[in-house]
Amino acid sequence: MRKILVLGHVDHGKTTFIRALNSVLYNRFGIGDEAGLIREQVVTAKKSFTFVVGGESYQYMDYPGFADYIDMFEAGEEKFDAALMICAATDGPMSQTRELARMAKEKGIDKLVLFLSKVDIADDDELVELVGFGAVEVLAEEGYDESMPMITGSADRAMMNPTGEHGDKIVEVIKAMAGLFD
Question: Which residue segment(s) compose the domain that 92 sits in?
Fold first, then answer.
């Protein structure tokens, strides 16, 4: 099983991405749990979603807060094969973006995909492009390859319309992540 750590600054959309992933996979491919789409709950523990693509199992894991990531990294009990960095197009890379990337790299997570989220509420396309370049630069400064896959989209919109264009972006993330292991 490939374990994928979902990283990002608080409120950049990590948990929303996990829910969108569930929604897209369930509505497009019948993979997942319909109850997970409609169940509302307070996030008090790590969330994960596991599915199989091309015969390989993937588990995407999200922790509820920055302190939980620090605890997890310090404990060293979890081993991950790659990371998905969520960065909001409305804010750009923030302090936790850099810190989480640094900690992930120190723990041996060398493979990374960048998802530039919240593009549906960003001011304009040019700003989104600049934020993307800034995020790649921050991640490269922490040791990640500048040619990392970067996908722009809206997890929130993907949940609302999993078969639409933003749902396509979630599928692009899945494919980019799988491509890291080819």
Answer: 2-179
